[in-house]
Amino acid sequence: MTENQRPLDRDTAPTSPGPLDRDTASGSPGPLDRGAADGRTSGAPDVLDCRGQRCPLPVIALARRVPVVPVGAVVRVLADDPAAANDIPAWCRLRGQEFLGAVETDAATGFDVRRVT
To answer: So which residues are the catalytic ones?
Structure first.
């Protein structure tokens, strides 16, 4: 753990989706939920922006998103934490999801995961 990171405990760990996951004012799907809401199973991936979040938060966000997208849909996790390169493929192996690979973008790496079950 670096000096900028704080340990997570039960009292400070996030328990609900982040602000980009849901429009909190209306309770309606936010911009990142639209891929799951329209039943899309191919085409552009559903993007989950986890930039600035440190381990294990990107994997936790992925674990929350996968059950709400249709089987066969792709979720792209944008993460700038170096630990995500190991954590996301390991989570896919443990949970029976398909890790498609990493894509470099301007600000972060995108990790593509296809929902299998």
So the answer is: 55
